[in-house]
């Protein structure tokens, strides 16, 4: 059975106990995990595992799927680490400051895409200090100061951040919900998770981790706008608090 995704039910969970399902140089699988795997532009979590008589640092977390099997999560231990044997009970501890920064920045990028909602997103990357979105804007000039002011206004309004679910069929009937050209929402499981900000600030498919309300993001600044091609503008945002 794939690991229970504790980060999905509560992204604020910092620690948990789990049992090792398998362990090897390719990574460690557990029956449950607080570690978010690299996906949708958000980096995989890092942290520490502790068990009786041992400890290992997790340097990356990735999705994994064997042929014909459901998707699971691999926890990649630092090189040279002693690995816990299958059946071992371990305590998981996230590098929480890093994860929380990813939650703040990922939510901020949703606000950015809401402000520029007429432009499709062509790429993006979440970081702990700076993050970016690329937009399909062939000729428009984006003003850094106006974007910064717009983001901080939405952040200060403290909109709620919630999730809801729709069926694959409902999403297909509403293609306007999908604003990313490079990453398609995961379909085929019967339902898709939507992230909703406020009453009508933003609504789109997303599987990442986010804060509960926009005020948690704190002040931000658009630090750079770059041209990445005839129809591509890269907007880089940084946390300022």
Q: Can you give the helix content as a percent range? A: 10-25%
Unreliable parts = none
Global geometry: elongated
Total number of β-strand segments? 15
Radius of gyration: 19 Å
The string of secondary-structure elements, in order, is EHEEEEEEEHEEHEHEEEE
List the strand order in the largest sheet.
Answer: 3-2-8-5-6-7
| Biggest beta sheet summary | 6 strands, antiparallel
Nearest-integer average pLDDT: 90
Q: Topology, pairings included?
A:
Elements: E1 4-5, H1 6-9, E2 15-24, E3 27-30, E4 32-33, E5 47-51, E6 54-64, E7 72-77, E8 89-94, H2 96-115, E9 121-125, E10 130-135, H3 144-156, E11 161-167, H4 168-173, E12 191-197, E13 202-205, E14 220-227, E15 233-239
Parallel strand pairs: 1-4
Antiparallel strand pairs: 2-3, 2-8, 5-6, 5-8, 6-7, 9-10, 10-15, 11-12, 12-13, 14-15
Helix pairs in contact: 2-3
Write up this protein.
- The protein has 241 residues and is an alpha+beta fold.
- It contains four helices and 15 strands.
- The strands form four sheets. Strands 3-2-8-5-6-7 form a six-stranded antiparallel β-sheet. A four-stranded antiparallel β-sheet has the order 9-10-15-14, covered by helices on one side.
- Strand 6 and strand 7 form a beta hairpin.
- The longest helix is centred in the middle third of the chain and has 20 residues.
- The chain is elongated, with a radius of gyration of 19 Å.
């Amino acid at each position: 059975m794939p690991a229970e995704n504790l980060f999905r039910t509560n992204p604020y969970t910092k620690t948990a106990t789990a049992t090792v399902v398998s362990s090897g140089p390719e990574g460690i699988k557990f029956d449950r995990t607080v570690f978010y795997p690299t996906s949708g532009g958000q980096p995989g979590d890092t942290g520490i595992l502790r068990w009786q008589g041992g400890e290992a640092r997790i340097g990356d977390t990735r999705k994994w799927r064997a042929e014909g099997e459901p998707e699971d999560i691999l926890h990649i231990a630092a090189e040279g680490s002693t690995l816990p044997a299958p059946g071992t009970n371990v305590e998981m501890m996230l590098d929480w400051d890093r994860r929380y920064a990813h939650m703040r920045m990922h939510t901020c990028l949703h606000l950015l895409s809401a402000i520029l909602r007429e432009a499709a997103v062509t790429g993006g990357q979440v970081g702990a200090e700076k993050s970016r979105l690329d937009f399909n804007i062939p000729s428009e000039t984006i003003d850094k100061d106006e974007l910064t002011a717009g983001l901080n206004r939405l952040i200060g309004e403290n909109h709620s951040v919630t999730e809801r679910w729709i069926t694959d069929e409902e999403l297909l009937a509403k293609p306007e919900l999908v604003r990313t050209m490079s990453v398609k929402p995961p379909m085929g499981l019967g339902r898709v998770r939507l992230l909703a900000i406020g009453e009508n600030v933003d609504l789109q498919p997303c599987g990442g981790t986010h804060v509960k309300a926009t005020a948690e993001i704190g002040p931000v600044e658009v630090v750079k706008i770059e041209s990445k091609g005839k129809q591509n503008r890269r907007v880089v945002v940084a946390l300022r608090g």
